Amino acid sequence: MIIVTRPHIADHDLDRIREYIESRGLRTHVSQGDERTVVGCVGDVQSLDPDAIRALAGVADVLRVSKPYRLAALEFVARPTLVSIGDARGTTFGGSEIVVAAGPCSVESREMILESAHAVSAAGARMLRGGAFKPRSSPYAFQGLGAEGLELLAEARAATGLPVVSEVLDPRQVELVSEYVDMLQIGARNMQNFALLAEVGRVRRPVLLKRGLSATIAELLLAAEHIMAQGNSQVVLCERGIRTFETATRNTLDVAAVAVLKRETHLPVIVDPSHAAGRTDLVAPLAFAAIAAGADGLIIETHPNPAMARSDGDQSLTLPSFTSLMKLLAPFAAAAGRTIASPTPENAHVVAGVAS
Amino acid sequence: MSSNESDTGLTALREKVEHVDTAIVALLAQRVELARAVGTHKREEGLATLDAKREAAVLRRAGTLAREAGLPEEAVRQLFWTIIGICRHAQEETQ
To answer: Is A214 a residue whose pLDDT tops 50?
Structure first.
C-alpha cells in the first residue's frame, strides 16, 4: 500500500501517518519528492483500512499496489532512483547521462585488462567491466582468474580512475568481491539465486542485476525486490536478451522490456547489446535501439584481440571499434534528450596506439 | 603545522571517537537490560512481548530527535529499528 501526501506536508503530520502504520506492525518507507511525499507500507497491508488512513491529516490518497513487487514499483517513490557508484567522477545511473560500462568478458591477464581499461576510458566509458569469476555453461571452459582477477581489476581502476563492475557467483564470495569492486554484478544465470540476492542486499554496494535468460519482466523485478528487501536499494536492472525460437542471434534483445520497465519501476535500466546479439555487427544497432527505448546505460564487451579471447570472442568489439561506436551513439543520446561521454581527443593516441 | 603535529591531532580525535563508541555500546547494554526488565514485567502481567504500538512510538520519537539534531532521519530510524530488534530478541530470550 502506498500513501500519497498533500504537497508540503508538515513533519508532525507525516510522523503521525507513519506511527499509525507502524503501530499496526508494518514498516514504512518514505520517499520525498519536490512537492509530494510518498509513504510506502511494507508488511501485512490487508490489515490496514484505507478509509481510516485517508482520514488522517495530510493524506491525499491511498493506493493499493496490486503488483507482487513493492519496493521496486514506480508508484512506491516520488522520483526515479539514482544509483551512484561513488567514484571521483560521480558516475550515476538514472540521471541525464547514459553511462557506458565496457571491458572484456573475463580478465585474462594484467596486460589485457590495463590495455582495455585505458582504451575504453579514452573512448568515453565510465565503468570498466571484467569477470574474475565466470559462470560457464561447460565445466571444462575457462572459469576466470578468481581473486587474482580482482587484484588486476583493482590495478586497472587505480591506473585509469574507472570504477569497476564484476560478477559475483556465490554468497560466500560477496564480501571478498565487495572489497575490490565498485558495483556487484548478478549474472543472468543467477537472477533467481535467492541466497545470493539476499547477500548482496546486505552489503552497501550498488548491484547490477541482469535479467535471466528465460525470466519475465515481473520475475526480474521480484529478483530486485529480494535485494531491496534486505535494505540495498541501489539496484540497476539490465536487459541482456532472452531465449526465443530465433537462431540468427544468440538471444533476442527484448527492447520492449526497457520501455515496460521504465513504466513499472523507478530503478535505472541498462542494456547489454553484446550478449543479446552474440555478434559484433549487431552491437551498434541494438545499442541505438536501447537508447531510443529509454535505457539509462549500456554494458558492452570489448577485447584487445577478440580472436584470441578465452570467452565470448564472437561478440567482443575491438578497442578501436568501441571508440567508433561511442562516436556513433552521441546523436542517439542527444535525440533522446540525454548526454553521453565522447572519446577524448587528448587520449586519441592511446586508442590509435591500440589499433596499430 | 608539521605532519607529526597533525598526526597527533588525528590520534587525539580518534581516541575521542573511541570513547564515544565505548559509551554507545555501554548505553546499548543498558537498553537491553531495561528491555529484559520490561519483558519480566510483561510476563508477570500476562502481556505479549511484541508491542507494535510502543515500537511505533519509539521510532517516531527517534525520528523527531534525529531531525532536531540535524541527523539524517531515515538512517536514524533504521538504526533504531535494529536496536528495537536487539532488545526484542533479548526479551524473548529471558522467557
So the answer is: yes
From the list A11, A22, A231, which residue is nearest B59 (CB)?
Answer: A22
Q: B61 CB near a chain A CB, below 8 Å? A: no
Q: Would you call A44 an interface residue with chain B, using a CB distance cutoff of 8 Å?
A: no
Is B81 at the interface with chain A, CB within 8 A?
yes
What is residue A356's predicted lDDT score, i.e. its pLDDT? 32
Domains and CATH numbers, chain B: 3-93 (1.20.59.10)
CA A231, CA B19: separation in Å to the nearest integer?
A: 29
Residue A297's contacts (CB-CB under 8 Å, 6 or more residues apart) are: A93, A98, A99, A100, A101, A236, A268, A270, A271
- pLDDT > 90? residue B56: yes
Secondary structure class of A216 (helix, strand, coil): coil
Closest to B55 (Cβ–Cβ): which among A22, A30, A231?
A22
- Neighbour count for residue A227 (Cβ, 10 Å): 27
Per the structure, the complete domain to which residue A44 belongs is given by 2-64
Question: Residues A85, A240: contact at Cβ < 8 Å?
Answer: no
Q: A11 — contact with chain B (CB < 8 Å)?
A: yes
Q: pTM of the prediction? A: 0.76
Write the ipTM. 0.74
